[in-house]
Amino acid sequence: MIDFFKRSELVRRGLASGKLRRRRARHEVLRGLEYSWGMKGVLFAAFIAGLALLIFSGNQPEPTKNFVIALLFFLIALMMLWINQPRTFSQNSRILLVFGVMLVQLALTKFIYVLCSSGVLRLQTDMTELLTPFALAPLLLSVLLGRNHGLYAAVFVSLWSSVLFGKIDAPLLVTGMISGFTAVYLTLQVRRRSKLVRAGLGVGVAIWILSLTFGFIGPINLFPPTANDWPMIGLQSAFAIGNGIVTATIVGGVIPMFEPLFQITTDISWLEASDLNHPLLRRMTIEAPGTYHHSLVVANLAEAAAEAIGANATLCRVCAYFHDVGKLVKPDYFTENMSFERNPHEDLAPTMSALIIIAHVKEGVDLALKYKLNQRIIDIIQEHHGTSLVYYFYKRAQQMHEDARAGGKIMKMPDIPEVREESFRYSGPKPQTKESAIVSLADAVESASRSLEKPTPAKIEQLVNDIIDQRISDHQLDECDLTLRDVRVIAERFRFTLMTMLHSRIAYPKQETKSSTPRDDSLRPDVMVTTRKPATAPPVSAA
């Protein structure tokens, strides 16, 4: 309350701005629950209780033995999750998602078994194996968390399903694993919802083939074929294939609800977010067209590099579109948007120019929060410059300082304050992920490439290597998980993409036209001459 009145007084006196910058809400309680070991214990106990309920319900033989086996499977599952997926193991929301989805599949399997065994469905034959949603958990977790989680679910949900009904059912175990593996293989890169349906069809075909192999469909007599009950075989086949299709349809319907609930963004959502008709991007085309074009080129560079090292290419493209939205606040102060008549930095001190350049990161975060952009986009906006130096204005400030010191010695003036490098550095943080580092490098490379005159492969290669070496020596890549091999591949993709974009054109001769008035050829513009910015304008790489 006291701070509020102090701020109000400063605003009234004109010593502070009345504008409040938007900040990301911090829920300390939720963060504490996210990494609490006590909450992990509650989640694991709830899953064990669910297993016990499913195994001990019904009249199945030796439920205690099956429950002990299920507990041993659970311990193995915990060890594998802790060793192979430490990030998932550390986050309680991910644990809830993984084990919750598997428990739901087990509950559906038990429910279908009860319906079929009690005769409620009134089918002519037992179709438990044909109606069991084998691929539900593998398919859903593969799309949300990746193929490793999908394979993990396929293995352990099949093991637990095999002990729900008595003795371990080997055909049921094999069918569950193979159908789960098929679901994961067909959803390695899901960028459209229609691919989920194709994956479901593939899972249905796998279930149908396995059902024929293990005798879930039939019996089928080849000699003579007329002795078979073909209508029943057709119905069983339809159930087997429809099983996979219905499962994929359910997964496609629940994914939009799971994404905001667990703070996960799939490739499908990233592709939807890449629409260039977003209000911020449309503003950029009008208010900062140079920045808009720069962002498109950075998106191409980042996407190509991400694909080459196995990072999320769609995420890089979308984040590159928005990484410089903060320049919308003062677009004329950035080289790509400057007019040819005036450079606004000529009237400013280097420290003030650097403050304006650095502020575009905070302004970008502010706009991203206002327009409710994805959290990953906000992170990359904040990280794409790391703690790098605004080198142009830093050197300009040093030169002005040297000139002032020289003049001060002549005029016998007191010491002039030193230029502090910290005042010309971005506030960070440094890139934390591969995707953030790729966008950061693509931004720097694209900006610097605009200053190349008559680009050649050798010049482009030297430029890319210099920028990457500079970022490494400045420790800007220390906090992300890029390897030296990844950096080498990224540099190679940058070189290839820039060479295709910066290729030179031949100078076409002017087409002769009949004219009564002869024209002076000396006044004809050269098609190969490039228009340049004023000599006083800072280089594009300054921002």
Pick out its properties:
22 helices, Hypothetical protein af1432, mainly alpha, 543 residues, 2 domains
Please give the CATH class of the largest domain: Mainly Alpha
N- to C-terminal distance:
38 Å
Overall form: elongated
What is the average of the pLDDT values? 84
Residue stretches low in confidence (pLDDT < 50, at least 5 long) are 521-537
Let me know the number of strands. Answer: 0
What is the radius of gyration computed over CA atoms, rounded to a whole number of angstroms?
A: 32 Å
State the helix count.
Answer: 22
Structure description:
This protein is mainly α. The protein contains 22 helices and no strands. Helix 3 (about 35-55) packs antiparallel against helix 4, helix 14 (about 280-285) packs across helix 15 (about 290-310) and helix 15 (about 290-310) packs across helix 20 (about 435-450). The longest helix is centred in the middle third of the chain and has 33 residues, at about 230-260. Residues about 520-535 have low confidence and may be disordered.
